[in-house]
TrEMBL record:
Tagged with keyword Mitochondrion: no
Protein name, UniProt field: Peroxidase
Organism of provenance: Coptis chinensis
Residues where substrate binds: 157
Domain spans labelled Plant heme peroxidase family profile: 21-315
Organism lineage string: Eukaryota, Viridiplantae, Streptophyta, Embryophyta, Tracheophyta
Residues that hold Ca(2+) 1 according to the record: 63, 66, 68, 70, 72, 84
C-alpha cells in the first residue's frame, strides 16, 4: 500500500512539477555559443523597436502559465486547431519574429539542440536586463511541447481578477503570493489597450462610474484616451510613464491608486501583498531580487517533449 502511494506521489510529482531538472550549464558542451547568439538577436530587435522588451516578457509569462514553459505559445494554428497565440487574451502578444530570428541564429550554430522554450526564457531575461532591470543566469533544458490550444488560454489570469482569484491562479502553478506581487512588477514595461481596464473607468458598478480605488485624476486621464465606445480600436496607454525602463515605478504608482488593472489594484487588498507592494515601492533592489527569484520559479514550470526545429510548428 505504502509503495503504491509512494509511486502515485512520484507520478503526480513528475507530471505536475518541473519534469526533468533544468541546469545552468545545460548547453555548455552541446551549444556553448547559444546564449550569446540569442542575446545578440534580442539586442538588435530592441534597438529597432523598444516595445519588444515588454512583448518578450509577456510571451514568456503566457507560455509558462499554459502547459508550462514549453513554447506552446509560439505554435501556429494548423487546420482546425486554433493555437494559443490566436486565442482570446492574445491582445498585444507580438514580436514573435524575434524568437524566430534567435532560433535561426542558434540553429546555424548547433542544429536541433536548443529548444524554443529555452530561447524564449533567455530572451525574456535579456529583455528585462536590456530595459535596465536585473540580470540573472537562466536554468536551461526545457523541452518544446506538441500541443497548443486557444481554449486553454482561458486559464490565464484576467485583469478583472480579485486577490483570491489571482492567488488561486498562481498557486495552481506552484507560485506563491510573493511570486504574484514580484511578477506583477512586470507591468513596469509595456502597453495596455483600453479594453483591459475598461471595467474600472466606465460603468464600474450600478452606482459608480469609476472604480473608487482609482485616483480621480488618473481615471480622468484614462477616460480622455479611452471613450466608452472604444471607437479607436488600438487605443490604450503605457503601463507607466517609464514603460520602457524596468524599474519599481509600477509599485510607487500602485500605492497612489494609479494602476491600470483591477488585478494590480487588488494587490493592495490583502495585508501580506500590500506590505510587499510597499517594500518594492521603496526599494528597487528588493524588487529586483524578488523578481529574479520568482522568474526562475515561473520559468521552471516545464512540460514539453522535443526540441522543435521551427518554433512555429511541431517536428
Ligand atoms: C497577475 C496576473 C496578470 C494579469 C491579470 C495580467 C494582465 C495583463 C493585461 C490585461 C495586459 C495588457 C494587454 C493589452 O491590453 O494589450 C498585460 C500586459 C503585460 N503584462 Fe501582464 N498580467 C499579469 C501578470 C503578468 C506577469 C507575471 C508578467 C511578467 C512577469 C506580465 C507582463 C506583462 C507585460 C510586459 C505586459 C505589456 C505587454 C506589451 O506591452 O506588449 N504580466 N498584462
Ligand atoms: C489574436 O487572435 C485573433 C482571433 O481571436 C487573431 O485574428 C489574431 O491574429 C491574433 N493575434 C496574434 C498576435 O496572434
Ligand atoms: C473574488 O471573486 C470571486 C468570483 O467573483 C468571489 O467569489 C470572491 O468572493 C471574490 N473574493 C474577494 C476577496 O473579493
Ligand atoms: C453604462 O450603463 C448604461 C446604463 O445601463 C448604458 O446606457 C451605457 O451604455 C453603459 N456604458 C458603457 C460604456 O457600457
Amino acid at each position: 500500500m505504502a509503495a503504491i502511494v509512494a509511486l502515485l506521489c512520484t507520478l503526480i510529482f513528475s507530471v505536475y512539477s518541473l519534469g526533468d531538472a533544468l541546469s545552468l550549464n545545460y548547453y555548455d558542451k552541446s551549444c556553448p555559443q547559444a546564449e550569446v547568439a540569442i542575446t545578440k538577436a534580442v539586442k538588435k530587435a530592441i534597438a529597432n523597436d523598444k516595445t519588444v522588451s515588454a512583448a518578450l516578457l509577456r510571451i514568456h509569462f503566457h507560455d509558462c502559465f499554459v502547459r508550462g514553459c514549453d513554447a506552446s505559445v509560439l505554435l501556429n494554428s494548423v487546420g482546425k486547431n486554433t493555437a494559443e497565440k490566436d486565442g482570446p487574451p492574445n491582445i498585444s502578444l507580438h514580436a514573435f519574429y524575434v524568437i524566430d530570428n534567435a532560433k535561426k541564429a542558434v540553429e546555424a550554430l548547433c542544429p536541433g539542440v536548443v529548444s524554443c522554450a529555452d530561447i524564449l526564457a533567455l530572451a525574456a531575461r535579456d529583455a528585462v536586463t536590456i530595459a535596465g532591470g536585473p540580470n540573472w543566469e537562466v536554468p536551461k533544458g526545457r523541452k518544446d511541447g506538441r500541443v497548443s490550444k486557444a481554449t486553454e488560454t482561458r486559464s490565464l489570469p484576467a485583469p478583472t481578477f480579485n486577490i483570491s482569484q489571482l492567488q488561486q491562479s498562481f498557486s495552481q502553478r506552484g507560485l506563491s503570493m510573493n511570486d504574484l506581487v514580484a511578477l506583477s512588477g512586470g507591468h513596469t514595461l509595456g502597453f495596455s489597450h483600453c479594453s483591459s481596464f475598461q471595467n474600472r473607468i466606465h460603468n464600474f458598478s450600478t452606482k459608480l462610474d469609476v472604480d473608487p480605488t482609482m485616483s480621480p485624476s488618473f481615471a480622468a486621464s484614462l477616460k480622455s484616451v479611452c471613450s466608452s465606445h472604444n471607437k479607436v480600436r488600438n487605443a490604450g496607454v503605457t503601463m507607466d510613464p517609464s514603460s520602457r525602463t524596468f524599474d519599481n515605478t509600477y509599485f510607487k504608482l500602485l500605492l497612489q491608486g494609479k494602476s491600470l488593472f483591477s488585478s494590480d489594484q487588488s494587490l493592495l487588498s490583502a495585508p501580506k501583498t500590500k506590505a510587499l507592494v510597499s517594500k518594492f515601492a521603496s526599494s528597487q533592489e528588493a524588487f529586483g531580487d524578488a523578481f529574479v527569484k520568482s522568474m526562475i520559479k515561473m520559468s521552471s514550470l516545464n512540460g514539453g517533449q522535443e526540441v522543435r526545429l521551427d518554433c512555429k510548428v511541431v517536428n
